[in-house]
Write a structure and sequence with these properties.
Number of helices: 3
Number of domains: 1
Order of helices and strands: EEEEEEHHH
Strand order of the largest sheet: 3-4-5-6
Bound molecules: zinc ion
Oligomer: single chain
Pfam families: RNHCP
Largest sheet: 4 strands, antiparallel
InterPro entries: RNHCP
Shape: globular
Protein name: RNHCP domain-containing protein
């Protein structure tokens, strides 16, 4: 099993992993147009998907592309916690999250008991 060196922090890790287990970064090899990018995918947030499986949200420092990746068992929990607790000054998915919030609030605002009077 081959090892590769993390371009971000220099940790050696198994090349079959999607990202560095220490800093959770990876390299953006090709963009959507199939062109080489070479930028570092930096983890910007952690979110829990439908089935409760946490995923990393990564953003390419070079071209700004976004991707999500499942968190692996070997990933450094300290790094995950520090990402998860980071304030989201620049939410990667503002539209989807806002829509979810709006739906939640819409459900609450429907309070049927209120109209029954
Ligand atoms: Zn690293
Ligand atoms: Zn990129």
């Amino acid at each position: 099993m081959a090892m590769i060196e993390c371009e971000n922090c220099g940790t050696m890790y198994d090349e079959s992993l999607d990202h560095c287990p220490e800093c959770l970064s990876s390299v953006h090899e090709t963009n959507d147009d199939g062109e080489e990018c070479g930028g570092i995918f930096e983890p910007v947030s952690v979110w829990i998907k439908d089935k409760g499986r946490p995923e990393l949200i990564c953003r390419c420092q070079f071209c700004g592309a976004l991707k999500t990746e499942p968190i692996e068992e070997d990933d450094n929990p300290v790094t995950i916690m520090s990402i998860a607790s980071r304030p989201l000054a620049n939410p990667p998915f503002p539209v989807e999250r806002l829509q979810e919030l709006t739906d939640l609030m819409g459900g609450q605002g429907d309070m049927s008991g209120y109209y029954r009077k």
